[in-house]
Write a structure and sequence with these properties.
Keywords: Hydrolase, Metal-binding, Metalloprotease, Protease, Zinc. This is Peptidase M48 domain-containing protein. With 385 residues, the protein is mostly helical. It has two domains: 246 residues, no CATH class; 125 residues, no CATH class. It has 18 helices and four strands. β3 and β4 form a beta hairpin.
Amino acid sequence: MRPLPYHLRLVDYLKRAEPEVWKWASSFAAQDQHVQEVRAGLLRETYRLTPESHPDVYAACQAVMAKLEIEAPVTLYQAGGDSMNAALFYLPGEVHVLFYGPVLEKLGPDELAALLGHELSHYRLWSLDGGDYHTASRILDHTLADPGASASHANTARLYDLFTEVYADRGAAFVTGAAGPSISTLVKVRTGIHAVDPEAYLAQARELEAGPPRLSEGQSHPEIYLRAQAVGKWVEGDPGLDDWLRLRLQGPLSMSKLDLIDQAELETLTRRFVSRFVAQEAMRSDLVMSQVKRYFPDWSDAEATVELDAITPEQADDSVRDYLGFVMLDLALADPDVRDHALLEAARAAKDLGRAEAFLEALKREGGLPKREVEGLARKLKAAA
């Protein structure tokens, strides 16, 4: 029940890249404001359940809290509506769980434990490591409220939510000792059906593994076919689970959906790719290196490099490979004295990345070279191959 790799990496990134924002978000003043807002909202919008009126639910909650090693006063609430669901409202040192619709009437004892395990795992995560993971969540929430928030901010918040739900699903399986109650609860809440065979649904979800990997399109929660597989793999101790989750929730690096972590990864990849491109002495002319330092003012002679076969489709999609082609094109055209050699090296690298045609098209469009020169480069590339 440790945080997922995405949680760890984002907290580390925010602490290093935004220390002042982190200091503000973790301040007591900001926490006090949040506490008052949550309390007022719950009192205004819900019916508060008491241990006297709902002893079974409170007893189930206390049992789940003991398994998750949570010690805090608990208050349960009921909201209206026809849709079944539940939510945790986080306050430091206090547990507040809100039930929606007829969810308490439709779930069996194990499913209720799974539902509570899911919601209380949110509390556990937010309380770990001095509240770091809740601080990160609040930073993302405040960032998205700003009109200047970028697409990378929105995608970071989305992925953080998706991985948090995966963590909470693990909590549901942890407190019940099996994946089944977690899966049947997911299906009941989603569909409203009265009886669910969790093994049959898990087999149904796994049928999708026979086709191409499907990237989640969820905005706050992954699709339940992904959540069912994720919790099943976790209970089974699948050693490839972290890689599977990254492929299904994040996908490879893509220029259209970079989050804050992917931006940092892309910068590292670019540095190493540029270092590989200028590794030959003939390529390190003053003009070329001047252009390199426009990309990276802190460039050093000890930069690491990357092998092209390490840039797999699982790591980077065609948009990133084309971007790397534009970087090479920019450097290759920086110095007329090394241009021909640099362009041939760039074209060879593009070919190894599977983007030779795209590179030549970019050269025609952006490089300002006559068509005959581009065609000559294509012939040289074919002859070299």
